[in-house]
Amino acid sequence: MSKGNLFVNGRQGDxxxxxxxxxxxxxxxxxxxxxxxxxxxxxxxxxxxxxDKNKNNIENLYTEFSxxxxxxxxGAIGASWSGIRSLCAMKNVGLNVASEPAHxxxxxxVKSGLVLAIGSDPGAPSSSNEQDDRWYxxxxxxxxxxxxxxxxxxxxxxxxFNISEEFSFGIMLMAPSRLxxxxxxxxxxxxxxxxxxxxxxxxxxxxYLNLFNMAVKNHSxxxxxxxxxxxxxxxxxxxxxxxxxxxxSGPKIGFISSGVIYAHLIEALDILGIYxxxxxxxxxxxxxxxxxxxxxxxxxxxxxxxxxxxxxLEFQIKKIAYEIGFKGKIYGKxxxxxxxxxxxxxxxxxAGKFLEKTPPAFFDFAIQKSKELNEKLPQRSGTFCIGxxxxxxxxxxxxxxxxxxxxxxxxxxxxAGDIGCYTLGLLPPYNAMDFLxxxxxxxxxxxxxxxxxxxxxxIALVGDSTFYHSGIPVLLNAVQNNADILYxxxxxSWTAMTGHQKTPSTQKDIDGILSSNPVNLKDLVKxxxxxxxxxxxxxxxxxxxxxxxxxxxxxxxxxxxAKRECILQEIRRNKFVQKTSGAKIETAESLYEIQKxxxxxxxxxxxxxxxxxIIPKRDxxxxxxxxxxxxxxxxxxxxxxxxxxxxxxxxxxxDLKVKLNKKKNEERLTEVPIQV
Amino acid sequence: xxxxxxxxxxxxxxxxxxxxxxxxxAALSSDLQDVSGSERRGGAQREGYxxxxxxxxxxxxxxxxxxxxxxxxxxxxxxGGADVLISLEPLExxxxxxxxxxxxxxxxxxxxxxxxSVRMGQTSYPEFGYIARELExxxxxxxxxxxxxxxxxxxNSLTQKNIIALGVLFAKTNIPIDKIVIESILSVGKGAKDNxxxxxxxxxx
Lengths: 676, 205
What we know:
- The structure holds two protein chains of two kinds.
- By secondary structure, chain A is α/β, with parallel strands linked by helices.
- Chain A folds into four domains: about 5-235, Thiamin diphosphate (ThDP)-binding fold, Pyr/PP domains (Rossmann fold, 3-Layer(aba) Sandwich); about 240-375, Rossmann fold (3-Layer(aba) Sandwich); about 390-570, Rossmann fold, CATH 3.40.50; about 585-670, 2-Layer Sandwich (Alpha-Beta Plaits), CATH 3.30.70.
- In chain A, about 40% of the residues lie in helices and about 20% in strands.
- Chain B is of the alpha/beta class.
- Chain B has a single domain (about 1-205), classed as Pyruvate-ferredoxin oxidoreductase, PFOR, domain III (Pyruvate-ferredoxin Oxidoreductase, domain 3).
- Helix content of chain B is about 35%, strand content about 20%.
- Chain B has helices at about 15-25, 60-65, 90-95, 115-120, 130-135, 145-155, 160-170, 180-185, 190-205; strands spanning about 1-10, 35, 50-60, 85, 105-110, 140-145.
- In chain B, helix 6 crosses helix 7 (about 160-170) and helix 7 (about 160-170) packs across helix 9.
C-alpha cells in the first residue's frame, strides 16, 4: 500500500506518514473539493502537487498551476461561485500578488467553501521576505485558522470548508514551512462522495456586482457576518484552554499561542518541567472573540503571548484586554524576537527566562558548544545543479562584462536579479546580481536606473516562469517608453525551483508527451514590439558571451533568450524513454577528463565556473592535489571543456557495448584514443 | 512517555529526506507510537545544507496519548536533544553537532564535499582530525565510514549511501525500532533488492 494510493483511497481508520502540505490537500479532498490551483512557491508547492499528480485517480477534480497568484485566486472564486468547493494555495508573498481578489472576497462572499492555504517562510530559507500574512486579515476580513501539527492540518482544512460556507468568507489557512514540511502520522477520515460534484453558477447580482452603493452595502453585510463568526468562535473547539495539573499551583501566569509555535511551547514547557500554568491554544486567530479572552485572562497576573514575527496576536489581545479592563501585564515581543524563525530553542530560552527556570544542563552545553564550533566553520551556500544551463548563462554574462566575482561593486554594469533558480547567481562565487527583491522587479527597477545612470549599462535577468507570471507588461512598458536595457530571459522550460511545474515554454513532458499549446517565446517577445531579439544556447558560452557584448552596444530594449531545458528534466526524460522503450543505448558514451599534465590549476573551471563535479583530489597523503572531474556526478554538459584556456580538458569517448566494469574504467580511459 | 530523537544532516541530493521517510514509516506499527519531524528542503539538489528530524514518541498508555500536554510535539529537535546524529558530510557533522549531548551517538560520512567558500580560497576545509577531536569532546560514541566509497564499490553508484548509513544506525545504536520493520519497508518498491542489500551492508559495518 503506497502513500500515493493512501492519499487517494485512505478511509477512516487508515493511517500513514504524510507531509504537512499533503495533509492540507487531503483535508480539502475529504471536504469534497472540485477545484485546486496555485502558482508554485516554496514551502506551499506540495499542497497542489499532491492533488495534481493524483488527479487521474480522483473523480471530478480540476487542478491548475496558474500563471500567477492573482489568476489562481480568481479561479478559485469562480469555482466557488459555480458551487464547487475550491482550494487555492500560494506562498506568503504570493498573497501580495493576489491581494486584490483577496480584498474583494469578503465583499462578495463565497458560494461553496473556499480555503486559501498560505505557506509562510520564517527565516526566509526560500523567500525574499518573512512577511506574516495574518496581518492581511485586518483589512480583508478573511478569517484565519492555524493548525499546529499534521493531524490538525487535515482536520482544520476539512472543517474550514463548512465554516466558509456557513459565514460566506474565504478562509485563510496559515502553514509555516515547519508545518508544510513536517512529516508524521496522519489518521485519515472519510471522503465526501465525489460523483455528485457538479457546477451550477447561480446568478447573484446583489453580491457579485460590487461597486458604488452595492459595494457599501456588501461592506456592511460582511461586518455583520464577521460578528456572527466571532460569536460562533466563543466556544468553538478550534480554541481551547489547558488548565494546570490538579496538584500543582503556582503564580498566576498564562500562555497564549497558536500554530506550530504552540507545539514548540508545549514541548518547551515539558523540557523545562513546568506544568502549573494556564495555556490558551488559538486555532482561529482572526477573529478572536472578546469573551474567550476575558474568560482566559480572569484571575491572571501575567500573560505571555508566544508567536513568530511582529506580534499579530499580541496586537489583537492587548486591544481586547484594554476593552475588558484587564489589570495584569501582557508580554510578547519583548520576550520573543520579531525577525528570523522562532525555533524550539528560542521558546525554551524565552519561557525559561520569564519563569526563572534554568533549562537542562545538556541544553546549555549544546548551545555553548555549537556557538564555539560555528564561529570556525566555513559557510556553505547552495549553488546551481551540475550541468545547469543557468551556470553557463551567468558565467557568460560575467565574462562579457568583465569578470569580477570577488567584488561585484567594481563592475560598471548593473545586473538586476529576479526570482527563480537563477537567483542562485547572486551567491558566491558569481556575485552576479546588484539587486533582487520580488517577482519582475529586475526589469522594472532596472528601466529607471538605465534612465538616470547613463554611465552604466543595465542588464535585467528573468526566468521563463517569472516572465509569464507578470513580466509581459513590464517588458511592454520598457518598449513603450524607449528604455535602454538588455533583458535576458533564462528559458529552461520549467518552473524548476518549486519541483518542475510546466510553464507556457514547456515543449515536452518528462514522459515524452508533447504539450498541446506551447508558446513560441521569441514570437511573443517580438509581438510586444522588441526588434532586437536573439535566442541561443547558453552552453555555447563563448558565443553567448559575445552576443551579450554586442547587445550591450545597441540602443533600446534588447532581448536575449538563453534557451536550454533544465538539465534535471532532460535527464529524467532520457531515463524514462530509455526504460519504457526498452532499448539499450548503443551509441558511444563520453566522459570529460582533466589531463594532469596540462592543467595548471588556473581555476577557470574550479572557481570561476565552479561546477561541483570538478573536485580536488589527492592520490596519496604525500601526493600533490589536482583537479578531477568526478565521472559519477558529471552530466557531460561540456561547458568546462569549452572554457578551459589551456585545453587541459579532453573529451573521451568509449563504447558502451563492452560491458562497463567499474574497476577497469580507469585503464580504459587511458587506452582509448582522444576523439574531440 | 519515551522519546528517541534522530537528526539527519547533509547536502541536498544525498537522500536525507528519504532516510527520514523510511524511519518515520516504522512508527506506524503500534497505536501507542507517534512520530514528528520537519525537513529543511530549500537546498535540495543544489549543494545546500539539508536536515531532517525523526522524533519517535512512545506513549505509556492511551490516556497519555489523549493528553493534550503530551500528544503535541514540536517538529524540531532542541539543542542537545538528539539521541543520534547521522551526517552524510564530515563538515556538516560539526554544524549538526548543536543537537548532540554527552550520550548521543554520531554516525558520519568521511567523504568531504567542499563548499564554494573553500573553492574560492576564502576559508579552508577542516582537517578530518579536527572534526573527530571536536566531536570527541562532546561524546565518545562516534562512528565514521566512507559511505560514498562503500556505495560505489558495491552498487556502482552513490545512491545507496543513505541506506547503508541506516544499517549502521541499527547496528550501533539502541534505536527502539525493530530492524525487521525497516526491512519490510525497504522491501517495497523498485529499488527493493539494492536497498535491502545496502541495509545489510550497513548492519555488518
